[in-house]
Amino acid sequence: MLKNNRYFITLVIATLVLAAGLTYGAESEEDMPNTEDRPGHQESAQQHKGASPEVGQTPQLPEGMTLDEVLDYSQRRPPSHFPDPLHDEQLNAFAMFEQLEYRIAEDASSDHTGWEAHGWFGGDFNKFWWKQEGDAAFDGPDEGDTETDFLYSRLITPFWNFQLGAQYANEWIPDDYDDRFSGVIAFQGLAPYKFELDNSLYISEDGDVTFEFGAEYDLWITQRLVIQPGAEFNFAARDIPDRDLGAGMTDGKLDLRLRYEITRDFAPYIGSRYQFLVGETKDIADDAGVDPERLFFVTGLRIAF
Questions:
Q1: What secondary structure does DSSP assign to 235-253, as a single string?
Q2: What is the CATH number of the domain that holds 283?
Q3: Is the four-CA dihedral 67, 73, 74, 75 of positive or negative sign?
Q4: Which one of 88, 114, 155, 303 is separated from 140 by 20 to 30 angstroms, measured CA to CA?
Q5: In 3-state terms, what secondary structure has residue 131?
Q6: How many domains would you assign to the chain?
């Protein structure tokens, strides 16, 4: 008897729970928002209902034109005064002096003026690039050097360019002048975490092979104040006696600049540059009595056109 009472009580509880659930569901459905109750819904629905063409109905043609004339007109080129839908073949130009600076030597050696500039002309995928950097003594002995690259650049990924071209380089000291031409193969682009990289392989007219690795990073302190560390390392595949270079890594530069962007195209800056010789190149400099390390304090302008 007790067992039957348990079955009966269980059945009653289940029936009550089911009834409560059905009642709640019906009330919730009545309380749910209905788009038909919104203002203007009926009017909008009637408009769309009346605007729907019947199946098989021929669309209305422009007044005074036959179907053949409409189809023929649709295949014509747009009128000359119509703007292009996409400017995907537009040519642009850009130029920038990344560094235009006066370098104050820490020791008693002469101060220098230095510059590093680049620019390009072309479209989204194909460009002509030029790059130049140089250094000249501001006082004391007349000495300096420049390097100018002329490159065809092709965008091969969203952030990387393959570049191919030629370089003209020259250097001078009192009573001596030397210049050379080299072929250039380069990869330039933006690495993860926004490191700007520029890697170039040079093959000179004498068959000398050198490699240059450069990297920069912009660390934004505010919307206008930027710290820019940079590094450059050079390598030679073999000894180059005419240029006082030994095989392996030859020299490096470590830069640190703090600039203030008055506008995005004009920014004064201050900073420092440490340049050094390493390996066999350092040994050659020591034998010649040349200081293998130099430190400069710099001030200059960053200008874009």
A1: EESS-BGGGTB-SEEEEEE
A2: 2.40.160.40
A3: positive
A4: 303
A5: strand
A6: 1
Q: pLDDT by residue (tens digit) across 31-66?
A: 555 555 555 555 555 555 555 555 656 778 888 888
Strand partners, 71: none
Task: Give the integer Cα–Cα distance in Å for 236 and 202.
Answer: 10
Task: Let me know: does 179 contact 169? Beta carbons within 8 Å.
Answer: yes
pLDDT tens digits for range 156-201: 999 999 999 999 999 998 888 999 999 999 999 999 999 999 999 9
Question: Is the residue at 79 inside a domain?
Answer: no
CA distance linking residue 264 with residue 220, whole number of Å? 13
**CA distance from start to end of the chain:** 100
User: 110, 140 in Cβ contact below 8 A?
Assistant: yes
Residue 93 inside a domain? The answer is: no
CB 216 within 8 A of CB 228: yes
Asked if residue 201 is part of any domain, the answer here is: yes
- pLDDT-derived band at 211, boundaries 50, 70, 90: very high
In a domain, 121, yes or no: no
Q: Are 295 and 108 in contact (CB under 8 A)?
A: no
Contact by Cβ (8 Å): 158, 189: no
Q: Which domain holds residue 281?
A: 154-304
